[in-house]
C-alpha cells in the first residue's frame, strides 16, 4: 500500500514511545521494537563536560525539552538525543510500509504552549520525519472512544485521565465539529514515575546523597518489572547491583501507589471544578496511559469523585490509535454548523440594549440645540452623556449577540478551527467588538454630518468610553480561542449584559435630557425639574446594579449614590454621568472576566486517605 495512504501516529510518553500505522481502509498496525510495542523514550547526552548517563545529561524523552536546547552545541546534542526514539520509529514505519510515510501525527499534552510545540516539531525534523501534525492527547483519546462505540452525544462532557509517568487530566466537550478542551491540569509527580521512585526507596533504603540517586537510577528497570509483576503476584525477587536481591511485596506496592492514586483523584476534582462543572455533568471518566491499571487507582477515583472511572483496554495505546484516526474523515463530511435561534431570554438580552441605543441616539439628535444658525459662529449643544451611553449600549447589544454572530460566521467558513465552540465564540466576540465599534463610529459620523460640524469630538465621546469594554471582550475572545475553560452557564449567558441596569440607565438619561431641553413653561417647571431628579436617581441605581451583585449591598449603596446623581443633574454634569455609567459597565465586565473566566473559585481540597484503599480490581499492567 502506498505511503500516501498510510498515517503514522507517535505517542512519546514519559516512559515509552508507542507508534501506530493506520490506513484509509481502517486497518492499523502497532509498531514493535525488539518484540515489544513500547520503545524506551529516555536517552542520554553529554553535557557540560559530563559523561553520558550522568543525571544532568539524562533526557526523559522527546516531550521534555532541556533549557536552551535550541541554541548552541548543547541544543544540537539535546535535539539529537531526543530525536533518537523518533528516528527509530521512522525507520520501522518505512520498513513496514516500504517507503517513507508522509502523513505523521505526534501526540502532545493538551496544556502545551508554543515553545514546547516548537520543540517537538524540531525533534521530529531532526529525526527525519516530515512536518508532523500535533494532536492533543485527550482529543485523540476521545476520538478513539467514538470509533470503539462509546456514546458521547454532542454537547456532552467527559474526563480523560492520562496516567503515565505523570498525570494529565482534561475535561472535554463534544461539539458539532469535534472535541474541545475546557480545562486541563497536570502533575508530573502523580504517575508511574513517582510509584517507581517510592518502590525503589523502599527496596534500597532511604539513604541520602548523590549515591542514593545513582543507585535508584541503576535499579529503575528492575523496579519497573517488579511493579508490573506485583499486580498479579504477592511477592517477587528484585536483583540489586552490588547487593543481595531483596523481596518486594504487594503491600509495598500498595503503599507506593496510595498517595499517587489520591493525587490523581484530587486532580480530577480540581480539573472538573476548573471547567465549572460537577461530576454529575460528566458522561464518563476514562483512564488511559501506561499506569492507568495501577492497583487501587480506579477505587480512589470512585471514592473521591463519586463516579466509577472506566479503564480503557490497552490504555497505553489509546492516544496513538486515536491520533491515527483524527482528521481521517474528509472535512466536506463534517457536520454543518447550525445557527442557534436565541430563546426569548437571550433575544431580550440582545434587543434591550439595541433598542436602548437607538432611543438614546434618536433623542440626542432631536433635542440637540443649535446656536448661531444665521451668524458666523455656529455651534451645537449635544448631551455628551447621552451620546456616550448610546455608543455603550450599541456595543453591549453586539456582544450579547456574539455567539449568534460566531455561528453565522462558522456556518459559512471553510476553516475547521472556527467550527469548534471555542472558535465560534472567539470569532463571534471579535466580530461583535468590531461591529459595536463601527456602530459607535457611525453615530459620530452621522451626527457630525447632520449638524455640519467637525467629527473629532463626536468620535472622542463615542469610542474612548467603550475602549475598556472592548479590551476585556478581546481578552475573553483569547480565552475562548485557547479553550482554557468555558464559563458556567455558557458563553451566551456571560456575554449578556444586565437588562435591569440598561433599562434604568436609559430611562434615567432620557428623563435628564428631557429636563434639560423641554420648554420651561411656568406651569411645567416643577414637573420638568422633578423629571430630571428622577432621571438622576434612576441613573445612580443603574450604576449600582452594574457594579454590585448582592442585593443587600445594592440597597445600601443605591440610596446615597442615587441622591448624589439626582443632586448634580445639570447640562455640564450630563457628560460626566454618561462616562460614569460607561465605567460601571467596564467594571461589570472586568468582574465577570476575573471571577468567571480567569480566576474561578478554586475547588475544595480533601485530605488524603490515611488507610489503604480497598477495591475489587482485576490485575493489569503498569507503566
TrEMBL record:
Start and end residues of each stretch annotated as Disordered: 41-64, 604-623
A UniProt-annotated Pfam family: HSP70
Membrane-spanning segments: 388-411, 423-446, 458-481, 493-513, 575-595
Origin superkingdom: Bacteria
Organism (species): Micromonospora inaquosa
Compositional bias ranges of the Low complexity kind: 46-57
Cited InterPro entries: ATPase_NBD, Hsp_70_fam
A GO MF label: ATP binding
Protein known as: Hsp70 family protein
Keyword annotations from UniProtKB, A to Z: ATP-binding, Chaperone, Membrane, Nucleotide-binding, Transmembrane, Transmembrane helix
Amino acid at each position: 500500500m502506498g505511503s500516501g495512504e498510510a498515517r503514522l501516529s507517535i505517542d512519546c510518553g514519559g516512559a515509552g514511545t508507542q507508534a501506530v500505522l493506520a490506513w484509509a481502509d481502517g486497518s492499523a498496525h502497532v509498531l514493535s521494537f525488539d518484540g515489544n510495542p513500547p520503545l524506551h523514550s529516555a536517552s542520554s547526552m553529554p553535557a557540560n563536560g559530563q559523561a553520558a548517563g550522568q543525571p544532568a545529561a539524562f533526557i526523559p524523552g522527546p516531550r521534555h525539552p532541556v533549557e536552551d536546547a535550541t541554541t548552541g552545541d548543547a541544543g544540537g546534542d539535546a535535539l539529537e538525543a531526543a530525536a533518537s526514539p523518533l528516528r527509530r520509529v521512522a525507520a520501522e514505519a518505512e520498513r513496514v510500509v516500504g517507503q517513507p510515510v508522509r502523513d505523521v501525527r505526534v501526540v502532545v499534552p493538551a496544556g502545551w504552549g508554543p515553545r514546547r510545540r516548537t520543540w517537538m516539531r524540531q525533534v521530529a525534523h531532526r529525526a527525519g520525519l516530515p512536518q508532523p501534525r500535533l494532536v492533543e492527547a485527550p482529543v485523540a483519546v476521545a476520538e478513539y472512544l467514538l470509533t470503539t462505540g462509546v456514546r458521547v452525544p454532542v454537547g456532552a462532557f467527559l474526563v480523560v485521565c492520562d496516567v503515565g509517568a505523570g498525570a494529565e487530566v482534561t475535561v472535554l466537550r463534544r461539539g458539532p465539529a469535534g472535541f474541545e478542551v475546557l480545562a486541563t491540569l497536570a502533575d508530573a509527580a502523580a504517575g508511574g514515575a513517582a510509584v517507581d521512585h517510592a518502590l525503589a526507596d523502599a527496596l534500597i533504603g532511604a539513604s541520602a546523597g548523590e549515591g542514593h540517586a545513582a543507585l535508584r537510577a541503576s535499579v529503575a528497570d528492575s523496579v519497573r518489572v517488579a511493579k508490573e509483576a506485583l499486580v498479579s503476584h504477592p511477592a517477587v525477587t528484585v536483583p540489586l547491583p552490588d547487593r543481595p536481591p531483596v523481596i518486594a511485596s504487594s503491600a509495598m506496592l500498595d503503599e507506593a501507589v496510595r498517595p499517587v492514586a489520591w493525587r490523581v483523584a484530587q486532580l480530577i476534582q480540581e480539573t472538573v471544578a476548573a471547567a465549572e462543572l460537577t461530576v454529575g455533568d460528566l458522561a464518563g471518566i476514562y483512564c488511559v496511559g501506561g499506569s492507568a491499571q495501577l492497583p487501587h487507582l480506579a477505587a480512589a477515583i470512585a471514592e473521591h469523585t463519586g463516579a466509577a472511572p472506566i479503564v480503557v483496554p490497552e490504555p497505553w495505546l489509546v492516544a496513538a490509535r486515536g491520533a491515527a484516526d483524527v482528521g481521517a474523515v474528509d472535512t466536506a463530511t463534517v457536520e454543518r454548523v447550525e445557527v442557534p435561534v436565541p430563546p426569548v431570554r437571550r433575544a431580550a438580552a440582545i434587543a434591550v440594549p439595541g433598542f436602548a441605543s437607538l432611543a438614546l441616539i434618536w433623542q440626542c439628535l432631536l433635542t440637540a440645540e443649535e446656536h448661531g444658525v444665521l451668524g458666523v459662529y455656529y455651534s451645537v449643544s449635544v448631551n455628551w452623556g447621552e451620546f456616550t451611553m448610546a455608543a455603550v449600549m450599541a456595543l453591549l447589544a453586539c456582544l450579547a449577540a456574539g455567539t449568534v454572530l460566531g455561528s453565522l460566521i462558522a456556518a459559512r467558513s471553510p476553516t475547521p478551527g472556527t467550527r469548534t465552540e471555542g472558535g465560534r465564540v472567539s470569532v463571534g466576540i471579535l466580530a461583535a467588538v468590531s461591529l459595536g465599534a463601527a456602530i459607535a463610529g457611525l453615530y459620530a459620523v452621522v451626527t457630525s454630518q447632520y449638524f455640519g460640524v467637525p467629527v473629532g469630538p463626536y468620535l472622542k465621546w463615542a469610542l474612548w468610553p467603550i475602549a475598556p469594554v472592548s479590551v476585556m471582550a478581546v481578552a475573553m475572545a483569547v480565552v475562548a480561542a485557547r479553550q482554557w475553560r468555558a464559563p458556567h452557564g455558557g458563553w451566551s449567558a456571560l456575554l449578556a449584559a444586565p437588562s435591569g441596569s440598561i433599562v434604568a440607565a436609559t430611562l434615567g438619561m432620557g428623563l435628564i435630557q428631557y429636563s434639560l431641553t423641554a420648554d420651561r413653561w411656568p406651569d411645567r417647571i416643577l414637573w420638568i425639574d422633578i423629571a430630571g431628579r428622577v432621571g438622576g436617581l434612576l441613573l445612580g441605581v443603574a450604576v449600582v446594579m452594574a457594579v454590585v451583585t448582592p442585593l443587600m449591598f445594592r440597597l445600601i449603596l443605591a440610596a446615597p449614590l442615587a441622591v448624589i446623581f439626582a443632586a448634580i443633574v445639570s447640562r455640564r454634569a450630563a457628560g460626566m454621568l454618561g462616562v460614569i455609567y460607561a465605567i460601571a459597565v467596564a467594571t461589570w465586565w472586568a468582574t465577570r472576566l476575573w471571577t468567571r473566566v480567569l480566576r474561578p473559585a478554586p475547588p475544595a481540597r480533601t485530605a488524603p486517605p490515611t488507610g489503604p484503599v480497598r477495591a475489587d480490581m482485576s490485575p493489569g499492567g503498569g507503566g
